[in-house]
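Continuing the batch. This is chain 6 of the set; chains 1 through 5 are on the previous pages. Same settings as before, nothing changed between runs. Recording input and output for traceability.
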Amino acid sequence: MTDYRYSPDDAPGESEAADSVDELADATRDIADVAAVEVIGAAAVHLMSAAAVKCGLAENPEGEIDLDEARKLITALAGLITASAPDLSDSHARPLRDGLRTLQLAFREASLVPDPIGKGPGEKWTGPVT
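Output for chain 6:
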């Protein structure tokens, strides 16, 4: 059995802590320079990529489809896109909506017992996808 108790010897040294603070400050400055549309786009791409893997559309080292996980990711993606679309230009929102729709259709196709129209992942926010 592994002992997970904390010991003062486990604490980072002063130089390691200073490096961590410097790295955090650099990261904070970096994110401050990034436009909101880019942060939203990056989050959407991460959700899309993960959902694609879970739906079996992308390379999965384990080769397994996990529709329960895909449903959660697609629903989160639908919420993000629906909530942010009014603040994004059409050139940014349209590809995100297209990607979402593709995932919703792939989910429906991968399901052994498809959800009723309008009840699939994210359809609460996007409306029925057929």
